[in-house]
Design goal:
α3 (98-111) crosses α4 (128-136). The chain is elongated and about 75 Å long. Helices cover 22% and strands 35% of the residues. Strands 1-2-3-4-5 form a 5-stranded antiparallel beta sheet, with helices on both faces. The protein has a 4-stranded mixed beta sheet with strand order 9-12-11-10, covered by helices on one side. The chain has a 4-stranded mixed beta sheet with strand order 13-16-15-14, covered by helices on one side. β10 (198-202) and β11 form a beta hairpin. It folds into 2 domains: 5-118, 3-Layer(aba) Sandwich (Aminopeptidase); 177-284, 2,3-Dihydroxybiphenyl 1,2-Dioxygenase, domain 1, CATH 3.10.180.10. With 285 residues, it is α+β, with helices and mostly antiparallel strands.
């Protein structure tokens, strides 16, 4: 069990899942508060109490130093490779900077007294409030993931925000795929039209393709080779799965495997490129 933490305006007090359930339920029952959560809103206090009792990790309630009901929760999700920072606040106290204040104190505690090497937060890319909270606590972007929660009507892109106890130099900044092809120009056009790649530069026997529109992102290099050896690529997408499949069919590209649902909870199909390469396209269910 952790210890209470004090900030300028807040007390962070270790959670009592039974005693605090009614107050916490105000947040857990609010659809707007739960918009980006990995579970739907709670239907009643009993369901909230069950969630709190079954949570894997250590959580603290967020309280005003002057007293009153619990304002929210902050804590560390366990059972994962890197402890996951989570927080939630009642909507009637949004906009006061409480989440950022609590996150700053808690991250310092987690990387200090708790002795954790790293903490990270998984945030929906559309959740600007939570991204700002993570940044206030010193977390920076470390990666991105496609996700789909069962109760939400569509997949979303998750930003992985993280912070280490000690400064960590980046050993490998990026990995660039190099694909040998007979026709650099033709293959470049295919990747542009089907996968939405951006042509960064091109020569007679070499081309650089960007995945996404931003500088410094993931890349694919195409290199001329009269006898290319087949390569297998995997391409993850968030919401463009069906659109990529439709564009591939419209372009007359051979489909090596039509869309299927895999046992690990993703959809996949395979595109067979002219040089014998295969691209497996996967996305959330």
């Amino acid at each position: 069990m952790g210890i209470p933490l004090r900030t300028e305006r807040l007390w962070l007090v270790p959670l009592d899942s039974a005693a605090d359930a009614a107050d916490v339920h105000v947040a857990f029952a609010d659809p707007e508060v739960m918009m980006y959560w990995d579970e739907p809103p709670s239907r009643d206090v009993g369901e909230t109490a069950g969630r709190l009792a079954g949570a894997v990790g250590d959580y603290w309630t967020v309280r005003d130093v002057d007293g009153g009901p619990v304002l929210g929760l902050i804590g560390i999700m366990g059972g994962v490779d890197i402890p996951g920072l989570q927080w939630i606040l009642r909507r009637d106290v949004w906009g006061r900077g409480y989440a950022g204040e609590a996150a700053i104190a808690f991250v310092e505690y987690a990387l200090g007294e708790l002795g954790l090497e790293r903490v990270e937060a998984w945030v929906d890319i559309a959740n600007g409030r939570s991204i700002a909270v993570a940044r206030r606590a010193g977390l920076t972007e470390r990666g991105r993931l496609p996700q789909r929660y069962p109760h939400r009507d569509r997949p979303h892109e998750t930003v992985v925000m993280g912070r280490a106890r000690l400064a960590e130099p980046t050993v490998v900044l990026n990995v660039v795929v190099e694909l040998p092809v007979r026709d650099v120009s033709g293959t470049s056009g295919l990747f542009e039209n089907v996968f939405g790649c951006t042509v960064l530069f091109t020569e007679d026997d070499f081309a650089g393709l960007g995945i996404g529109a931003w500088s410094g992102g993931r890349r694919i290099h195409l290199v001329t080779d009269e006898r290319p050896s087949p390569v297998r690529l995997s391409l993850e997408t968030v919401t463009e799965f069906d659109a990529i499949h439709a564009r591939a069919v419209a372009a007359g590209v051979q489909i090596g495997q039509y869309p299927v649902v895999q046992p690990w909870g993703r959809r996949e199909f395979v595109i067979a490129l002219p040089d014998g390469h295969e691209v497996t396209v996967s996305g959330p269910l």
